[in-house]
Specification:
Layout: E1 2-9, E2 15-22, H1 25-34, E3 38-44, H2 47-53, H3 64-79, H4 84-94, H5 98-112, H6 117-122, H7 130-142, H8 145-202, H9 208-243, H10 245-255, H11 261-282, H12 287-297, H13 301-315, H14 321-327, H15 332-344, H16 347-367, H17 369-403
Antiparallel strand pairs: 1-2, 1-3
Helix pairs in contact: 3-4, 3-8, 4-5, 7-8, 7-12, 8-9, 8-11, 8-17, 9-17, 11-12, 11-16, 12-13, 13-14, 15-16
């Protein structure tokens, strides 16, 4: 089935427009006419046409909320033993997001023509990333697609919650930084130039800090546009560098060394690793397949490599924890509890305990992030203001002494 946009006139002569699902153009026209509408225009809708007609959007125009809800609905339908094509038919009818609705319709058509679900999803990388596609592929291969989809829904919801927590923790510091930066900018652009005229009239050598302050003021007034260009080019260059394997490896290694941030990143990945692995194992997914799926959810490439090495170790009949311990990226408590779980045959409960513990720690750390950043920002802003005042006040005092 495809989706068609139509325009026409109703019985009163008023213009109407809408969409219909139909097997083909002829059937779509017949369906619209059966509603008492005289057709003036009808065309098949595609994901490309939705993007072109969108007023303004970034990325895929599909939110994490929409994606998570769709994933959970699909998992529920598949668990109810509904065929994939029929499940997607139901999703197309239920989905309100126009871009996602058309995309799902196209995926349904591809699956109906014999494509695997993972391959069909892979044709829409702006909506379904590599993690999503790889997990679906593993679920199809192992016959546990509905379990994997439920975990994907949890994962996307977890991403949204984590993002909201970070935003909440950073709101106050960002507002403070913006307000402080704006005030300092006003001082440099409007106040310092006026005081500079007084300094010039003094006709004497100014202190180094005052010369630096005047130079910054002149630079901001004359070359503000250069700062914007440099910021944009720098950000784009950073994104391209980070997208390369070498750049991503170096960036992730750096993140694991940054105070506070390293601890939060480690906790998030450990919680994700333990929670997902426990869920998959409890659902009957083989451990090698489970670890392949789990490795796709880990954001840090070095921690991901440790998990992949651990999977290889398990496939060779060795311990799960050996590579994790050697990597020195997983906290000793985590590897110790996993090791105990392996020996006692209670691996899933141990993993769940670790996941819950670290999830609580992540929430605590994020809640305390504001209390850590606030004094640091206050000190930095205080130092900048002190530098400006010292740069301005010292020459004025000298001028006052000369006048006396």
């Amino acid at each position: 089935m495809a989706i068609y946009n139509y325009k026409g006139l109703d019985k009163s002569g008023s213009e109407v427009k809408g969409t219909v699902n139909s097997e083909g153009l002829v059937a779509a026209k017949s369906r619209v006419r059966s509603m008492g509408i005289m057709l003036t225009e009808i065309s098949e809708q595609t994901s490309g046409s939705v993007k072109k007609n969108a007023s303004f959007s970034f990325g895929s125009a599909v939110s994490i909320d929409d994606l998570s809800l769709m994933t959970r609905q699909l998992a529920t339908l598949l668990r109810a033993k509904i065929q994939v094509v029929e499940a997607f038919t139901a999703l197309v009818d239920q989905t309100e997001n126009p871009n996602l609705k058309i995309t799902l319709s196209e995926i349904r058509q591809k699956v109906n023509e014999g494509s695997s679900l993972a391959k069909a999803l892979g044709d829409y990388p702006k909506i379904f990333d590599n993690v999503y596609v790889n997990m679906v592929d593993a679920g199809e291969t192992s016959g546990t697609l509905e379990v994997v989809l439920l975990k994907l829904a949890d994962f996307t919801e977890g991403q949204l919650k984590l993002r909201n927590k970070i935003k909440s923790a950073m709101t106050y510091p960002v507002v403070m930084m913006g307000a402080g930066g704006g005030m300092i900018g006003i001082i440099f652009v409007f106040v310092i130039p006026k005081i500079t005229k007084i300094f010039i009239s003094m006709k004497k050598t100014l202190p180094l800090q005052t010369q630096i302050c005047i130079w910054i003021s002149n630079f901001l007034i004359s070359y503000w546009w250069l700062l914007i260009i440099a910021a944009v080019l720098g950000w784009q260059s950073f994104k391209k560098w980070k997208a390369t394997p070498s750049g991503r490896s170096k960036y992730d290694a750096f993140v694991l060394k940054v105070p506070v941030v390293a601890e939060i990143v480690t906790m998030i990945n450990v919680s994700r690793f333990c929670s997902t692995l426990a869920t998959l194992l409890q659902s009957g997914v083989p451990i090698l397949v489970s670890m392949k799926i789990v490795s796709n959810l880990i954001s840090n490439v070095h921690m991901k490599k440790a998990i992949e090495d651990s999977r290889q170790s398990v496939s060779e009949g060795a311990s799960l924890t050996g590579p994790l311990i050697r990597s020195e990226l997983f906290p000793p408590m985590v590897t110790h509890m996993i090791k105990l779980g392996e020996k006692s045959g209670e691996l899933e409960p141990m993993l769940q305990i670790v996941a819950e513990n670290y999830e609580d720690q992540v929430n605590t750390k994020l809640s305390g992030l504001t209390s850590v950043l606030e004094p640091i920002m206050m000190v930095v802003m205080g130092l900048v203001v002190a530098f400006i005042i010292f740069s301005v006040v010292v020459p004025l005092i000298d001028l006052n002494n000369v006048t006396k």
